[in-house]
Design a protein that fits this description.
Layout: E1 2-4, E2 10-12, H1 28-41, E3 49-55, E4 64-70, E5 82-86, E6 89-91, H2 98-102, E7 110-119, H3 122-127, E8 133-137, E9 141-150, E10 155-161, H4 168-178, H5 180-183, E11 187-197, E12 205-206, E13 209-211, H6 213-216, H7 227-248, H8 253-282, H9 286-295, H10 299-311, H11 319-348
Parallel strand pairs: 1-8, 6-13
Antiparallel strand pairs: 1-2, 3-4, 4-5, 7-10, 7-11, 8-9, 9-10, 12-13
Helix pairs in contact: 7-8, 9-11
The protein binds flavin-adenine dinucleotide.
Amino acid sequence: MRLLSPSNLASDFSRHLRPAAHIAMLRREVLDSFLRSRAQSQGAHLLPALLTSLSLPSSPLHPYLLHYIPSGAGAGAGPATSTLAVDVVVGADGANSRVARCIGAGDYSTAIAFQERVRLPPAGMAAYADLAEMYVGDDVSPDFYAWVFPKCDHVAVGTGTAAAKPAIRRLQAAARARAAPKLAGGVVVRVEAHPIPEHPRPRRVAGRAALVGDAAGYVARCSGEGIYFAAKSGRMCGDAIVRIWKEKGRVAEADLKREYLRRWDEEFAGTFRFLDALQRVFYGSNAAREALVELCGDEYVQRMTFDSYLHKKMAAGRPLDDLGLLWKSAGSLLRATILGREVERLRSL
Ligand SMILES: Cc1cc2nc3c(=O)[nH]c(=O)nc-3n(C[C@H](O)[C@H](O)[C@H](O)COP(=O)(O)OP(=O)(O)OC[C@H]3O[C@@H](n4cnc5c(N)ncnc54)[C@H](O)[C@@H]3O)c2cc1C
């Protein structure tokens, strides 16, 4: 995992991964269909369809009615809507969640992520066989980072921002330019853009309906990681429903809040707040980004980061080392700020 500063200073961030630990890169089109098939083989009934709306129950004893258009319907005579009655709804339908809208979960602010899938010549691909890059700088994103991530037989080149959504194509061009020598000869095979939630929705459980993943707003600031949290929240919510059902024979809002929401917040709310603070401090200016890259060369920073990242839990630090790190962070920030001002002064001469 290589982090590149605005001045292209590189820090190899994963030198101190523990033996056998690794940072996973994956292709969602492969993972998603694997998960779907596995659920089916475990007894889930798949119903390929587009959910169009949800009728809320008139009492705790009545079912939710899901209105949907089955996949493949609509050719010729117009879409044929079907209805399914269910006891409990788990909305895992992403950032534009229809379920969230129907249950009145409220809005959240979003960033936008833009990504191009690029097929590289064999030599270019070989360079990314075991390398993922993150670029920081005002040129590629005013508040996040740009990336080149390997995806087995191609790379994903992208950037994200909440602050400058209309400028996303300019930021993407800058990201491509930063990595240009390594992307030489590459052919864009797919372009993707999607909102990324910045914080949880005001309501994540309403009645017997719960939201998970992006629909709930579980994307970590700083890293933009949402796949793990989507899978984890889906499992936590599903486990909670089974537990409640076995115990009481029916599910109520208070049970879902206690067994799913409270457990989720206990486990992850602190981590999300910490990453939010880190993003504000280190992605706010080029000087802070230079300091971030310098700090990421430090062995203790790497160990703490990866111990926390791999186990999704803030690793417990050593007080003396933490104090040293605080001192080093302040020093790096100050040095990068002074250097940045000096560069600006020289430029203006
Ligand atoms: C460009 C980009 C790069 C990213 N890179 C990373 C990364 O490197 N690492 C990481 O951890 N995260 C990354 N993320 C974030 C991550 O993709 C999301 O957090 C994660 O996919 C959330 O999973 P989800 O299942 O909640 O939602 P989604 O993955 O959005 O899945 C929602 C599903 O619901 C379906 N759906 C939606 N509406 C309906 C409807 N009305 N009826 C029926 N089905 C519906 C959709 O078709 C989709 O299959 C990235 C996001 C983007 C946009």
